[in-house]
Amino acid sequence: MASAPTHNVRAYLEGDVPLQAAVADLAQCSDADLDAALDEVLTAAAGRGEPDSHRAHQLLAALPMERIGPRLEARLRRDDDPGARNAARVAMAALVHGGSAHLIHRLDHLVREEEDDDVRIFAATVLGDAGNPAALPILVDALRDPNPNVVAAAAEALAALRDDRALEPLCAVLASGHHWARLAAAEALGALGTREAVDPLLAAARDPEASLAAIPALGKIPHPRALAGLAELLEEGVAAHEGEAWRSVARVIASVGPDTIPDALRAMARRSEAIFRKWGPERRSDTALLLGLSGTPAAIDTLLEWAEDEAASDAVAAAIGTLPEAAAGAILERLGEMPDHTLRLALGALRRLPPDTDPSPVLECLASTDPEIRAEAAELLATLPVRVLEPAVQRLLERPEHRRGAAEVLARMRPSPHERLTDLLLDEDEEVRRTAARGLRACASPDALDSIRAALDRETSREVVRELLIALARCGGEEAIDDLGRAIEDPDPGMRFVAAEAMGRSRDPRAVAPLLAALSDGHAGVRAAALRALGRLGDPAASEPVADRMRTEEPDLRRVAGESLEHLAPDRVLDSIREAARDPDREVRIVAIDLLALVGDEESARIVTELSEADVDPVVRRHAREVARSRHDG
Amino acid sequence: MDSRKRPFSDDEFRQFRDWIAGRFGISYGEQKREMLRARLEPRRAALGLERYGDLLFHLKFHPEREAEVERLLPHLTNNESFFFRERRTLEVLDREVLPDLYRRAATQGDRPVRIMSAACATGEEAYTLAMLSRLGERRPPVRITGLDVDPIALGKARTATFGVHSLRGVPDAERRRHFLHEEGDRWVVRPEYRDGVSFVRGNLLSDDWVRSCAAQDVIFCRNVLIYFGDTAFQTVIDNIHRALRPGGHLFLGHAETLRRLAAHPFEVIRQPGCVFYRKAEGW
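The joint structure predicted for all components is written out below.
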């Protein structure tokens, strides 16, 4: 390349001249020179992440589509040059993603009318790569193409769009299409990952022609219905794909957690343990989960052997969480043998201690030097009845190495033992005092108020003071608000942050004024805490100042402001909310959708519908559809 | 309470996933949702927070959030490593790459040969490289740098003390040559292998470390890129390319490849059992 008429194109790609120089060259050059230059631009565009790739995409976007569109199309037909074809595909996808209506129209035409099957396939693939929701109807139509390869490409492209409006058309293909297209439709439904796809996939899983794809697709749907469906399949017997079905079970449990495991599945897992053990180390995560599901003594032994390997910690912890409750005792006995990393996760994975369990192994964890292990152990112990727990904890308070952990347990006991906790506010160990103060958050008893205020007067640790402020707010009262009002003006932003949070928990309307002032704090974190607190207090008078913060530069602050408005009077600040529905940040748009649904007027509903169809982000589109559906159903 | 399990809502999972991807380049797909929840749980419990959303709020807004981010990070990554991992790669380094590097360095006034262990975690790879580069006759000076984002892992690395699990790939004779045995089945790297090994904190996604470290002759970046999404992967490779001296070499994990990228600026070198990469001389 680099002929004289287009030398600025190369120079632009290398960053030596501005974009306009390259555009001007290409506008004036001959067709032959344009083709040569385009080859180089497309090659650069395909080099993802390189600086010249970005510049190449900018150049393509600046060129008239009428001139380069046909040239890009021509390269899609280059069977002799896969590199050129793929480069054109990458470029077209980027242009369509950028909203090139001309190209979408051309690709629509190609998908519907082009005689060459390969070009129709490429056109469908480009539309999927581009991620533009305008492609949805084109691809849905392409599901009716007579060539199953084109249908399969359209199904894959719909999966890439992640738009669940494709659900029904894909289910239709799954039910009655060509074998090849059915497999692609099953995979696409798995990629959509919606609950509504489960039953059609289950039906397909019973069909020998489609089961190969339908069973793994079920594993991609994070919903208990998928788990129940897989259990049904295993019960009916899916001999040819039993291993794949179990793998899908593991995947669904990894997504949804162990709380919805059908009992029948556990029984089958016990019988099928030999299948899991044949899987190699590369499937250890799946194997561990399923061994946990089976819960046999041999399975537990294997898991505990694996627990020594730090690389298997996640898998073992997940498996422990999957164990039947009755098997948890075997794990508890071996807590002392686990390395810290696994112990932390294992304690977190055990959901509760049955009342008749011997809690000694967990009580011993309270002596750990690792604060996270102590906290996890305390969380677990707090699931025991107080009558069982309290005497044990009382004994541990008298042992220096267990004292911190014992304080953690007291802080989590319900009802909150506020007298013991206030005693601990005098402890010489700062961490014990901090834990006790944290425990008093749940207290909200005026009886504790004097002890808390006395502790505030004498406490020297700022960490403990922060916890005491939150506890104070929960107890409430005029003096509490006065104390917090002083703390929210402290020079330390950490103290101001905590004071704002605490005021939000106070449920005291006198907290509104200082929080409104804190919306102008110099520290973004304090402003965020104040926004959230105002939402918690729920005073409609705060609506406008909070809504104003939906225009700040920081997207996270805009989102927090929006979330707070859900508890205030969003109908008073509609303009701000509608503006937020166009926010460049998707989380802000999602919050705006929720606010518009709360307001519930016609214009708001119209905006939500528009977002459900046209937002560039599939997550936002899905959220808007779910909100619109709830409104309709409600 | 009946069960201590906290719900992990769709919104919380999505927002955490996006934050982690943006901050560290680590990707958590839907199948890792429970894993992520389990990894967040220790910090949620330690801070006494009700919801995972509260934890994210803390990580984004608390004035001392960076300290909390540092405490959370070890939970998000698998820091598992051991000495002389993937021996074939090390053999290739020793036989095919290092001799040439030493020759070049000798002709350039005996400048140090610089080798980096990127995402070094607790230092097993960095010390392995130190042991490898000192085998045989005298060499030009070798400087090994271990780079990682996790300050706790770096702290452990600097102690040069390891449990027997980290030495499972080291036969007894080698163990005695390279380590001193301590009580409690702990092993300390011998002083002669600790000299010239330093550990620095840096995020592979940022180019700060590229600017602050000297140009490297070899960079090992093994078994960490698998956690990165495509964009982060590209950023890290770009940074590594800039950090390498022209003619410098990049070694990835044996199951990793640059084929994920549509284009990359490295020359691919294939040896039996090992593929590695070289930055062109002209860069």
